[in-house]
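I would love for you to help me understand the pair of lines that follows before we discuss the fold together.
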Amino acid sequence: MKEAGGEEYILSAVMHADERNRALSEQLGRDIYHYHLHVVYVPVVEKEVKWTKRCKDPALVGTTKEVIHQVSHSKKWASEKALDKEGNIQRDENGKALLINAYSLLQDRFFEHMQAAGFKDFERGERGSTAAHLGVLEYKIKQDKERLAGLAGDVADKEEQAAALDKTLKQKGKQLAGLDKQLTVTEKASAMYSELERMGKKNLWGHMELLPEEFKKLLTLAKSGLASQGKLLELQRQLTEAVKGLEIYRTRWQDLKGRTKDYMELERLHPEQTRKALESLKRLEKETSAPAPTLKRKQQQER
């Protein structure tokens, strides 16, 4: 409203939320959109019409005749003269005053508005920057390269984690196999108890009578059974913990596969392009990590 000069000059103002932030959406697990406002308005300015020399009354010449509203892009978006720290007008080598671009002034006003609204972490872009804006396709390619670089690093970490998990799973498998063998021995001990039930015979008074050989065997089986009972409980406890640990590692493995599915799918569909992109990113990382020579930067005057 303030920039347009009034509600009557605004033709349309539409809030859009159709730009999805893919990186944040994947990181948070839900769709994140950028909200932005599209405004179309007529650049209307006030203009003072002066009395000219043709006026019959000499006293009125040069004074304001009337104030009219005029559509003027250049006056609505007028540039301002650049000043130095002492407040003097900055000039070029030909003595012509340097002007601050109208769009740069708009950015200044927008920055001040956001700061006043409480967005203290909002940053103003670099004044006088000659950096060109990227096209939509170039911007998306740049974003994809950055995401691919980050994804490549994540994949390397996940591959190390996967190798460690795979090693642990194999160890758990061996542990379970050993427990199975021990349980087989314990099952044999349980079979001995069944054999006890078939030993001896009842006499006339209902008591069991055992032969000397059967009595010796009974003592041996009883001792073996007591020892096996304790081992069985311990083995069951170990088996329960091993199965629980195995399920935890299986869950982590599935989570790891889910987090790297984008890269795996990209590698499956475009293996050669993915390989080249990774090699290019590795070279770029080496170049950026190398110490750069110190260059004297020429201070540029703001345009």
In short: The chain is about 55% helix and 15% strand. The first helix runs from residue 22 to 28. Strands lie at 10-20, 33-41, 44-50, 64-71, 80-81, 99-100, 201-202, 208-209.
